[in-house]
Amino acid sequence: MSKVKVEQLTKIFGKRQQQALAMIKENKDKTEILEKTGATVGVYDASFEVNEGEIFVVMGLSGSGKSTMIRLLNRLIDPTSGEIYIDGQDIAKMDKEELREVRRHKINMVFQNFGLFPHRTILENTEYGLEVRGVPKEERQQLAEQALDNSGLLSFKDQFPSQLSGGMQQRVGLARALANDPEILLMDEAFSALDPLIRREMQDELLDLQSNVQKTIIFITHDLNEALRIGDRIALMKDGQIMQIGTGEEILTHPANQYVRDFVEDVDRSKVLTAQNIMVPALTANIEVDGPNVALNRMRKEEVSMLLVVDRKRKLKGSLTADSALEARRKNLPLSDVIDKNVRTIPKDMLVTDIFNLIFDSPTPLAVVEGDRLEGVVIRGSVLESLADHQEEEGVTVDA
Amino acid sequence: MLDFLQQSLPVADWVEGFTDWLTRTFAGFFSALQHGGQFLMDGMTGLLTVIPPLLFIVVLTAAAFFISNKKWGLTLFTLIGLLFIYNQGLWSDLMSTVTLVLLSSVLSIIIGVPLGILMAKKETAKTIITPILDFMQTMPGFVYLIPAVAFFGIGMVPGVFASVIFALPPTVRFTNLGIRQIPKELVEASDSFGGTGRQKLFKLELPLAKSTILAGINQTTMLALSMVVIASMIGAPGLGRGVLSALQRAQVGNGFVNGLALVILAIIVDRFTQNINKPKQQAKKTAASRKKIGGIIAAAAAVLLLLGAFALNGNNQASKGTINLSYVEWDTEVASTHVVGEVLKEMGYDVNLTPLDNAIMWESVVNGESDGMVSAWLPNTHQAQYAQYKDQVEDLGVNLEGAKVGLVVPDYMDVESIEDLSDQANQTITGIEPGAGVVNAAEKTVQEYPNLADWHVATSSSGAMTVALGQAIQTKQPIVITGWSPHWMFAKYGLKYLEDPKGAMGQAETIHTIVRKGLKEDQPDAYNVLDNFNWTQKDMEDVMLAINDGENPEDAAKDWVKAHPDQVNDWKK
User: Fold this and answer.
1) Least CB-CB distance to B194: which of A112, A115, A133?
2) How high is the pLDDT of residue B184?
3) In this complex, is the C-beta atom of B191 within 8 Å of any C-beta atom belonging to chain A?
4) Per residue in A82-93, pLDDT tens?
5) What is the pLDDT of residues A43-59, one digit of tens each?
6) Domains in chain A with CATH codes
7) Are B185 and A131 an interchain contact pair (Cβ–Cβ within 8 Å)?
8) Does chain B have fewer CB atoms within 10 Å around its N or its C terminus?
9) How far apart are CA A282 and CA B108, in angstroms?
């Protein structure tokens, strides 16, 4: 039996909702309905199930209704119609008291901007859920400290949220939800306000956590990569309606319609791919200022074993392997003495099919240049990917 | 429709009727409030004045030192400012004002914060309350004095009532704003953990809105302070009374000193409330300083309580009772009322002298809030009031003969009679307070004489009128004023009454003593003095001149009483 089951859930904001509903059935889009009736369609006719222990991702652009959807699940927003079953109970029909019990024990939420109370310390924030439940002070502080300890923030418990970095604050937000030991965790774009590096870290942490605690997680994001990384299943929304539900693989391979296909950044097939479509930014060392130590440091950080070497004007000078950089460090030589000047270069407008032939016998990535300025590099993976997509598309007709 | 436009709607009558109905229906409730409030305020003012001023100043200075985080600016300002007020002899006035402001602010908070919360939670409430707040804030403060007097009579209670109405809106608005400004996400967070409305309010909304609410309260205290001056027109004691009487008697210096005292008080109150509102620097630090402040407050409270206990023990002197006399701030009445008050004081009464507006003075005697007055000009000047109230008061007869009112001009103007007036002095009669009897007489006069058809009576105040007269005489400009004798201006300038062939300004008048019904049974001795009190124009002008030459009314009255023991003894018989 599924943990959460949603059936024909609809939320319309504003007035003249009947008229708006009628217009949706005629497949009118959101802006048109808004202009005509003044009503905003938040969510329309959504049905899905979430299984126990699953990370279910709801994805969509802004305005697609995903935030409304998640707030319907714990009734921060009351639905216009439809049913929301949690453990077989319809929470849409509960009175305030019953709903409060569900919120206190079963379902908790993590917010995009962390939703921490600025006037309370980290510990006081973390114990909030237990506090409103009426758990005695000793016990709730112990639970809160435990939750903070799990996320490595115990030493900050007497600080205020403003004294912590964004990543730490979001860990507190997560700890606050977990301190309650809920069965379901709602995460509303929880990592969107963080910078990309911390974001990846948090995603990993969430996956670790999930392997330990086995919660049912409903995760909202507008970022396809995030969805693919953490989602067991993904629901893609547009204008309040669910376009497709499936695993990441299913969505990438069998997009249900044109919108999904565009969303998963399917490349425009009307053009033929060239080097500049598939190149990635190059990792470089600057021959005029960097020494072997800097170069090694950069390799370590980026987890690669070679760099391209350029001068200040981004003119390509050669390539540098980790071995030669180590040698230069030992012998105290400048970089210019150890670089390999024979780098394969290709022009920006070279076709993928031609690159394909070059890349197989090249040990190093191909440098994409314009004149002698370095623009990027082409690596083996991207070529293969583009070709694979290309072959798959052969059978599909495209609306020009 | 046209009919409707041509006939004015009797809105004034409706309001009048409604207020009368309120006053009648809730008379018991109002009077309970009035007595409770009066008792509370007298107690508070009493307690505040019992503390030796210098000790109080030291305590407040210490409080300022700690509240401002040990900055010297506010500390020194508090010390010097309060010492200045003490030095000017305005300490007890200051304490009355503090009582008024404190009570108004506290009441505004008690009423305003819950209202603000209601507004923030319910859209309907917001829609209903907002226009009411606009109305309250823009309606001139004077207007609130009228029903205040009808409900609560004179004194501090109506003053507080009016101040609360006037000062309430900022607290309500800012509370509403503070709660509405809390990020939606935080509110959602509280809800999503299953917090109840109460928990949300006390754990999240009020703590976060605190500084906004305190800013509103700060505004409220400032507005309450500004109402203090206005409320003194209906007998609220304090610094405002000094400002008002300075205005009515055109004493720049006195007005400045009282005003400055208000400014000092306002700045201290403002800085105190603002400093309480300072955001937390570091939690631990503030906890320590909170303890300190708490300690200081506790110590201060202990000291005050001890002193209060001493004072109450020491204050149990036998008093014969309290006599409340009211008067109008005309120079004649200031003189006579202070003399009578002085005599009653010597007999062992506690005497309160309350300056009021003319109509309110009559009303206060009618409701027994004042025991009496010696300022009724009859039969003409106070004709309207006398006609209205004569059955509800006791007229003890004349205390001064040969008082006269009329239109007065400087003797360099070549008019002798009202009928000679044509286009002099911009066709303006310079009058005094709008409610005064002589102004009513002047307005009647303008209607009765055809040559005054284009004239009008400009009202101001007794003080402003004498200033205008002095200026006109200095520059030899023509001026027509509503004058009355006895008055020191006749001694100071060359003036003449204009003949009044139609008798519209009234003939020679007498000043009567009017007391409330039942005074004879309650305070026979005081009644007796008031009954016997009478003197001559000459006597009165002696006192008036002394006051006008800068002596304070009490001292002038004392001097006169000392100088005329026989006459005073005659009154006591």
Assistant:
1) A133
2) 92
3) yes
4) 999 999 899 989
5) 988 999 999 989 999 99
6) 52-79+95-266 (3.40.50.300), 276-386 (3.10.580.10)
7) no
8) N
9) 68
